[in-house]
């Protein structure tokens, strides 16, 4: 005979006899049948069909046909009695709804707090283990939240307005956008995913340590741009990007790129809302050249919308994959420029 175990009111088979395993392979077993299917079995047998004929017609196992009909003959019932066996579940459907409301009210509540709040006003208390099991049965799992930028209500509205204004742009129109951004690459990066194998007394062994340096040992800031058609220039930035340095980049690199790639003046240049990009001298320069290309109005706090972020990720991964890592800022800059030049256009 099969031995059954109960988990929150639902039976699952933990062991089966060889005969029952064979029957389960041939068709639905006794415990798997719904009340409607049990009624079909009784109707087939009462119509004069044999056990084999009923099993072949309905697709159930011979054991299921025999047991259902026998139960109906002896007790006059076709409903399953399995759900009434075993210990009653401590958290019924009403309790699950109560527990679900507790989580919806506060997603950051701990398991202990859920159990405590659930037990308030309840005649029968439950333990944390029961709470954990119930939550898993309901589909809840404890997970670390994804990190996203904090966006104000005003900026949310501006992002929505940008999406609505450009929702009808076709792929052909987006191909005319040149994307730009700045990024900083550190000479030494800290990878929190590194793990080591050590014994209890080896925590300070040199082979089990990861060295750190202040500010990542320095880094290189670069400005780059690209479009659907090709990669644009990658420009190293000496110290920080201010309005003067940005004006030099716009006039020496953006202007030639835009006039070459979009000679029909149908190109769009994208840049974020960094203070240096909003300086008056930069705005005046773009106004003087508005007949050659258009500056795309960009919503604030929207780095997730810029495809150039994927290129920075490619450069970062290629830097980490180098066989010989840069040891100074000059080598790091040369490596970044080399990786950028060799990025596939696909």
Automatic annotation (TrEMBL):
One of its GO terms (molecular function) is DNA binding. InterPro entries: Homeodomain-like_sf, RNaseH_sf, Tc1-like_DDE_dom, Transposase_5, Transposase_Tc1-like. Residues 177-321 form the Tc1-like transposase DDE domain. It comes from the Eukaryota. One of its GO terms (biological process) is DNA transposition. Residues 97-168 form the Transposase Tc1-like domain. Pfam families: DDE_3 (PF13358), HTH_Tnp_Tc3_2 (PF01498). Coiled coil: none annotated. Transmembrane segments: none annotated. This is Tc1-like transposase DDE domain-containing protein. It comes from Esox lucius (Northern pike).
């Amino acid at each position: 005979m099969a031995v059954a175990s109960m988990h929150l009111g639902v039976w699952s088979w933990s062991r089966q006899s060889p005969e029952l395993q064979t029957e389960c392979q041939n068709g639905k077993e006794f415990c798997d049948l719904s009340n409607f299917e049990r009624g079909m079995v009784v109707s087939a047998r009462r119509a004069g069909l044999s056990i084999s004929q009923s099993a072949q017609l309905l697709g159930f196992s011979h054991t299921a046909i025999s047991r259902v009909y026998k139960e109906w003959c002896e007790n006059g019932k076709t409903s399953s009695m399995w759900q009434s066996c075993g210990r009653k579940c401590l958290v019924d459907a009403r309790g699950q709804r109560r527990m679900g409301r507790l989580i919806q009210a506060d997603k950051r509540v701990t398991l202990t707090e859920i159990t405590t709040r659930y037990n308030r006003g309840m005649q029968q208390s439950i333990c944390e283990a029961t709470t954990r099991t119930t939550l898993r049965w309901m589909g809840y799992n404890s997970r670390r939240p994804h990190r996203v930028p904090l966006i104000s209500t005003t900026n949310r509205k501006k992002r929505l307005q940008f999406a609505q204004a450009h929702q009808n742009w076709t792929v052909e129109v987006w191909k005319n956008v040149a994307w730009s951004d700045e990024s900083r690459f550190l000479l030494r990066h800290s990878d929190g995913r590194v793990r080591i194998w050590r014994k209890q007394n080896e925590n300070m062994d040199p082979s089990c340590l990861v060295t750190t340096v202040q500010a990542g040992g320095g880094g290189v800031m670069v400005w780059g741009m690209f479009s659907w058609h090709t990669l644009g220039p990658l420009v190293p930035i000496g110290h920080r990007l201010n309005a003067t340095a940005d004006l030099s980049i716009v006039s020496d690199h953006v202007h030639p790129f835009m006039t070459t790639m979009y000679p029909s003046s149908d190109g769009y240049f994208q840049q974020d809302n960094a203070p240096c990009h909003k300086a008056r001298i930069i705005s005046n320069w773009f106004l003087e050249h508005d007949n050659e290309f258009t500056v795309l109005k960009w919503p604030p706090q929207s780095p997730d919308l810029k495809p150039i972020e994927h290129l920075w990720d490619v450069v970062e991964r290629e830097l980490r994959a180098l066989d010989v890592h840069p040891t100074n800022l000059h080598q790091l800059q040369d490596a970044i420029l080399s990786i950028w030049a060799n990025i596939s256009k696909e």
